[in-house]
Structures are given as C-alpha cells and as structure tokens.
Amino acid sequence: MDADWRRLLASGDVLNAVYGDAPPAPDACRLFYVHFDERGNSATLGFETRQFPVDPPPEWVEKGLNAFEFYLAFTGVTGLRVTGWGSAEARQVGVAAVEGGQLLQVSLGSEASGIVFRASAVRLAKSRAYLASDSE
After folding, report:
1. Which of 58, 68, 74, 122 lies 20 to 30 Å from 42, alpha-carbon distance?
2. d(CA 83, CA 103)
3. 109-113 — which CB contacts under 8 Å span 24+ positions?
C-alpha cells in the first residue's frame, strides 16, 4: 500500500508540483480531517506533514515555513464501511490501486475498527505551507 500511496501523491493531479517523485510516506503524514459528502459521493481527507519538499518554493524558505497540509478529495466513493473511529484508527492510512488500477481502496484503521471505501478518482482539493511550533 505504501507504493500505491506514493504513486498516488506523485501523480500530476495531487502533490507532484510540490514534491515531484518524492512525496511523504503515509507514516510521515498525520490524518486530521475526514469528511463524507453523500450529495457528491465523495470523501475528503486532510493530512499534515513536517516532511517538506527537498526544493520548496523560495517564498516558503524566506518565511521559515516548516509544515505542509493537504486535502485529498476522493470522488465516486462506493462501499463505505465504518466499524469504529478514534485516534488509533487515524494513525493507520492505506491506499491501494485495485481492479487493475481502475479504483482506489482506501483504509483508515484496521479491518476490526476503522473506515474503508473505494473511489474512482482523487484530486488535491487544497494545500498550504505554514509555520508550526516545535511542540507539534
């Protein structure tokens, strides 16, 4: 799943413009936001990371920014199953390409307690770099 996560984030529609071929690993990202919208059959997941790009934009360096957050909007969500949710589940994030790469299988948590769903597409909904305190 780690390879699929990295391939997903490195794609042109997600974080390629910022990270190129070296996006942060799932364990370097903290999931802090989960939102499901039944009107559009979508799920939006928000992540923050301290793993900055190797070559960040000059204005980020000038401002001393040290953290990055991004929101991934998954569309065409099907098979949503929620068996529990809490801080332990938020630490386990997995994305895998399934059905010959036609769908994404997203898992938050474990089989026993967490959230799973499939999506037909994903895009970067929002991102920003910011200055975070050292205590985070």
Report:
1. 68
2. 22
3. 109/83, 109/84, 109/85, 111/83, 112/83, 112/84, 113/83, 113/84, 113/85, 113/86, 113/88, 113/89
Task: Give the domain extent around 122.
Answer: 2-130
**Does residue 78 form part of some domain?**
yes
Q: Are 15 and 108 in contact (CB under 8 A)?
A: no
Cα–Cα distance, 51 to 123 (Å, whole number): 20
- What does pTM read for this prediction? 0.90
Whether 135 is covered by a domain: the verdict is no
How do residues 13-36 score in pLDDT, each as one tens digit?
A: 788 888 888 889 888 999 999 999
